[in-house]
Amino acid sequence: MKVGFIGLGIMGKPMASHLIKKGYETYLFDLNTDAVNELKAIGGHACISNKEVAENSDVIITMLPAGKHVSFVLFSETGIASNCRPGTVIIDMSSVKPEESIEFASKLKAYDVHLIDAPVSGGEPMAVEGTLSIMAGGDEAHFNTILPLFEVMGERIVHMGPTGTGSATKLANQILVSTHLAALAEATVYASKAGIDLNKLYEAIGTGLAGSAVMDAKIQRIIDRDFEPGGKIETNFKDLGNIQASANTLGVPLPVTNLVKEIFGSEIANGNGGKDHSYIIDFFEKMANHQVSGK
Asked: Which of 13, 51, 170, 275 is catalytic?
């Protein structure tokens, strides 16, 4: 199976590296040529365009920032749809609106090309480890065909149902991740200003009902004030916008999520969009006039 991979950012580069190391003939393209060359050095095939990836691949993975980028890669003149072989399976692992996934799949049918929407959860650490959670929507037969690829990149892999359900599951995931981040930030600012050692706070409550994977992954970053991005504030904000748009289409009120979206938006307005999403603690620190530190 020849695999194309388009989008070699924080998540895509380690995901593609696992495929190469597993022995898959992998064709690579990204506007960042340094990322392409880094993977070429371990056995990947560097391509100069989306078209070249499409011409050489049986399955093509896209891991891109937003739906508009996926649409361009799929349907531009030099894109995948008009340059790949009939029967090609495209796996879009980007975080997009479910309505976009359904639209992409519908348009690809005219080319006899199939779409699986399969966004991921776990951030950069799990991408590097190859232990991502993968939530996939689309035809089950096509899902079963590409399952071995998912098993190289992820640990928990679930076929959610028809096209769009993978993307909808990711948005539900992002509701929880973003609100957990906000709750963790608020709680740690309160605890710190109350004089509590945050390491002891984690020891006391981390394995109880208040504990979460978000706390496990982020509280030490907060204590150390390490805000190099694993997941960026701007990415969460983009996802929260997709959630809001999809929920409006469905007629689902999201009062808590919409409030959290404004907090992320405030940090972007203050120039912090490229920082790790745990840096939304800055919003709560400014309100409390107190900076958290575990030192």
From this structure: 170
In this prediction, residue 294 carries a pLDDT of 58
Q: Which CATH topology does 2-162 take?
A: Rossmann fold (3.40.50)
The dihedral formed by the CA atoms of 206, 207, 212 and 213, expressed in degrees to the nearest 10:
100
Domain ranges of the chain: 2-162, 168-288
143-155 pLDDT, tens digit per residue, is 999 999 999 999 9
In this prediction, residue 291 has a pLDDT band, given cuts at 50, 70 and 90, of very high
Which class is domain 168-288?
mainly alpha
Task: Render pLDDT for 104-130 as a digit per residue (tens, 0 to 9).
Answer: 999 999 999 999 999 999 888 899 999
- Let me know if 51 is a catalytic residue: no
Q: What value does the mean pLDDT take over residues 158-180?
A: 97
